[in-house]
Amino acid sequence: MGSTIGTFILRIMGWKITGQFPHEKKIIIIGAPHTSNWDFIIAMSAVMSLRLKFKFMMKKQAFFWPFSSFWKYLGGVPIDRSKKNDITIQMSEWFNSQDNAYLGLTPEGTRSKVLGFKKGYLRIAYASKVPVFLVGIDAEKKEVALDRIWPLSNDIKKDNDDIKAYFDKTYRGIRPEFG
Description:
There is one protein chain. With 179 residues, the protein is of the alpha/beta class. It has one domain. Helices cover 39% and strands 22% of the residues. It has helices spanning 2-13, 38-50, 68-74, 84-96, 120-128, 156-170; strands at residues 16-19, 26-32, 55-59, 76-79, 101-105, 132-138, 143-150. Strand 6 and strand 7 (143-150) form a beta hairpin. The longest helix has 15 residues, at 156-170. It starts with a helix and ends in a 9-residue tail after the last helix. The mean pLDDT is 88.
């Protein structure tokens, strides 16, 4: 049922999914550019269409009545962003306790314009020893691009800069002035 609904929403909005989801038991999925509230609707429709079960981190301020149960049902995990180190440890422990685990993140951490990505997704990936899979929102082509697993170099700053440059070169968000 969810697959049909997700596919229907994407179709009426004129969007499509391209690429293949990797055959990995544990993975961090980063989606970018995150420039609009529509990104969430498009991304969740793609998740439903692909029948993926995953968790995503979201600022705890979004978990208020009546939306708290809804976010948790969709896979939302409330995060207190003032405790950065705790998040890496918590998510690494979560990955290590799971047989199969997908975690979705937006590396910008906001819809506003940012010069660089936050590095938390890489800290979690390195601490958990899981790969990072790139998913692009391409508003020009109206595509959710299941892109690639990024080869990590053991240098968080280099990886982060290279991934940001790749997204900037390859994808345009719904509101590119915020990308």
